[in-house]
């Protein structure tokens, strides 16, 4: 298995309202767009009109931020069924969300909170992923998140945790290379060795992003800056292991022009082609 048996779409970008008109008029050369599913599932009027025009020209992949797969709240089956209808409507080849929790007692914390790396959490998440896969009836990928803290009652490494969940649930990995890089700084490990330890045949998509550096030397995974050199380097080494995939440059705040976004996406695609060619 390569690329979790998904089609490699090359370089894409996040679809944001601010860029609608330019994308509709100029049809820039993105291969695909990723949307935050929760922002588009209940659209109507002008936004829907624009979205449908863009959908007629591009593949659109929905990426969720509130599935809360690690939560102890029961999965909301009505929400999942609405999500399935939406995925069908836009003909989504796969769906992705995060390996974390966002909901506590059905209150959305609006953040991606890391889960404790324990066997109980593995079993809990695996059983929930199986439900999600059954309802959505398409490949589902989960993204590794940034961890600013170490949850104290861990029983295994993050790598072992992800390996177990991915294998036992047979789901895919959305590998966020920036998140690996930032975690490696916070938790002092070698990012390349970490990536090597993952089940790389299950990587079906990659995220890259820039971040904000705070005056005290800490970082925020803010998706508001160009991808730094260290992440490009880690990306190239990752592609040498995974082969071609679908890669997305995330840029959510301080949005650049469509032109700048395209340049960044094309840089990712060129790097990917160069690495794959060199390995052939
Ligand atoms: Fe990401």
Shape: globular
CATH architecture: Alpha-Beta Barrel
**Integer tally of domains:** 1
Taking the sheet with the most strands, its summary is: 8 strands, parallel
Chain-wise SSE layout:
Layout: E1 10-14, H1 20-26, E2 32-36, H2 37-40, H3 45-55, E3 59-63, H4 77-89, E4 95-98, E5 101-104, E6 107-113, H5 119-136, E7 140-143, H6 158-169, E8 172-176, H7 177-187, H8 191-196, E9 203-209, E10 212-213, E11 219-220, H9 229-242, E12 246-250, H10 258-279
Parallel strand pairs: 1-2, 1-12, 2-3, 4-7, 7-8, 8-9, 9-12
Antiparallel strand pairs: 5-6, 10-11
Helix pairs in contact: 1-3, 5-6, 9-10
Q: What does it look like?
A:
With about 280 residues, the protein is α/β, with parallel strands linked by helices. The protein has one domain (about 5-275): Divalent-metal-dependent TIM barrel enzymes (TIM Barrel, Alpha-Beta Barrel), CATH 3.20.20. Helix content is about 40%, strand content about 20%. It has helices spanning about 20-25, 35-40, 45-55, 75-90, 120-135, 160-170, 175-185, 190-195, 230-240, 260-280; strands at about 10-15, 30-35, 60-65, 95-100, 100-105, 105-115, 140-145, 170-175, 205-210, 210-215, 220, 245-250. The protein has an eight-stranded parallel β-sheet with strand order 3-2-1-12-9-8-7-4. The chain has a two-stranded antiparallel ribbon with strand order 5-6. A two-stranded antiparallel ribbon has the order 10-11. Strand 10 and strand 11 (about 220) form a beta hairpin. Helix 1 (about 20-25) runs parallel beside helix 3, helix 5 packs parallel to helix 6 (about 160-170) and helix 9 (about 230-240) crosses helix 10 (about 260-280). The longest helix is centred in the C-terminal third of the chain and has 22 residues, at about 260-280. It starts with 9 loop residues before the first strand and ends with a helix. About 40% of the residues are buried. Bound molecules: fe (ii) ion (FE2). Fe (ii) ion binds near residues 143, 176, 207 and 250.
